Sequence to fold (239 residues):
Amino acid sequence: MKKIFLSILIWTVGATLTIALYFAMLLCTVLLYPFDKKRSITHMQCFWWSDALIALNPYWKLEISGLNNIDKKRTYVIIANHQSLADIVLAYKIKMQFKWVAKESLFKIPFVGWSLALAKHIKLQRGNLGSIKKVYREASHWLRSGISILFFPEGTRSETLEMGDFRNGAFKLAIKERVPILPVLFEGTGTAIPRGSWIFTTQTCAKLKILPAIETTDYQPADFVKLKDIARSILEKGF
Fold:
């Protein structure tokens, strides 16, 4: 009974915070529209949202390491493994300006999707070549504007602790734009959100690790597979 009550409370608080986040982002967008074309202040509202969701969930404990590997003066192609929707919450703990590359269906979720749109995250329609080309045009634009881009190169959440195959796009983009790859590792988030049930039952000790950046200046466009393999190996060794 206690777990049911706590789960109802967690979901209620989470939904309330997400609705509050949307309206905070909307207010920032409207008031700062002429001065914040990159939606940086709008994006920063997700920082308090992430802090609150993590702090108020009694089933979650988070360890963060490697923040010193982030140079706030640089722009990155961020790559991360993907175990759970909780990864999205945790990613804001790195306190960086970035744009997600997120599947189109997420933008249709009330409040969550509306918030993604307000922050100008990048919408991907899977299997649509025109959408894929548009993603890379937008990503290049943001990188040249000093905003990092975050990819889940597996393309979807892993169903096991093993990382899936990486797609090529993030690595082609990093080489083309001459920006470093920043590997981010999520560990233990696979049990953070219940699957097949709404009841929280498992204590989760999750880890967020920011690993040293991989420079791309010496890579040629044809070297994207080599870069992909190196980045994947670095993430695997981080566990």
